[in-house]
Amino acid sequence: MSTTIIAFLAIASYAASGIVISVRLFHEKTETNIPRPVGIGLGLAGVLLHGTILYQGIISDSGINLGFYAAFSLIAWSILLLLMLSAVTKPVENLGIFLLPLAILSILLEMHFSTAHLFPADASWGLRVHVLISLLAYSLLAMASVQAVLLAVHDHHLHHRHPGGFIRALPPLITMETLLFEMIGLGFVLLTIGLISGFIFLENILIQRLAHKTILSIVAWFVFGTLLWGRFRFGWRGQKALIWTLIGFVVLMLAYFGSKFVVEVILGVNAG
């Protein structure tokens, strides 16, 4: 089966999952008989198809292509994989209304544009672990940022006494808040391990090519660490949690994607 057909099926699966989740979210439960597992199942089907595209486009004998568009697609795939697996046991599938379009966009960009940044096939296991853990940290904290936005919307509607069908379809506020800080807590742990492993396994981590990534990642680590400390010490929540989460997420994304976009997309330099 050609990559184009697989991409079309992946996009169709993601879109169908998003439609099902949206219908269940924005309509009263009595108005729709679509079972919750349908949206999750369609999302998982999209994840499997998306993974096939990634394998065909990223893995080669020369190494692993982590160019800008491939990396964007890989992180989008990781986010959807974590989301759909988590949705099997937790009420988090509603995040899909924001994240599924992101995954669709990542497939379209990967199919139509290309940059190359090869991660050596003979890289050490330590370097591979560093990349994997960093990828999981980015994905979890990206999910947390979307959860924070949804939580803020939920909190705003409740405080202004506008509990419409959309709000009634969401989990209780305390459940959403607990899930948010679980995501941030685990993401923070993974980011900590990723930073430590980077200092251990990456040579010259503070050279010019990596210095900005390292510094911005450390800044993001402090932001999320401060948020968790504020939650533990002062019970931070609501708007304050949203602001700190989004600041940390933006800084973290700039750390990884900022220079890649400038070098590979704007300047058109392919790194080997």
Description:
The protein has 272 residues and is an all-alpha fold. It folds into 2 domains: 1-118; 123-272, no CATH class. Helices cover 76% and strands 3% of the residues. It has 9 helices and 3 strands, in the order H-H-E-E-H-H-E-H-H-H-H-H. The chain has helices spanning 3-26, 36-58, 68-87, 96-112, 125-159, 165-168, 173-201, 208-234, 238-266, and strands at residues 59-60, 63-65, 118-120. It has a 3-stranded antiparallel beta sheet with strand order 1-2-3. Strand 1 and strand 2 (63-65) form a beta hairpin. Helix 3 packs antiparallel against helix 4 (96-112), helix 5 crosses helix 9 and helix 8 (208-234) packs antiparallel against helix 9 (238-266). The longest helix has 35 residues, at 125-159. It starts with a helix and ends in a 6-residue tail after the last helix. The model has no long low-confidence stretch (mean pLDDT 85).
Give the arrangement of secondary structure elements.
Elements: H1 3-26, H2 36-58, E1 59-60, E2 63-65, H3 68-87, H4 96-112, E3 118-120, H5 125-159, H6 165-168, H7 173-201, H8 208-234, H9 238-266
Antiparallel strand pairs: 1-2, 2-3
Helix pairs in contact: 1-2, 1-4, 2-3, 3-4, 3-5, 5-7, 5-9, 7-8, 8-9
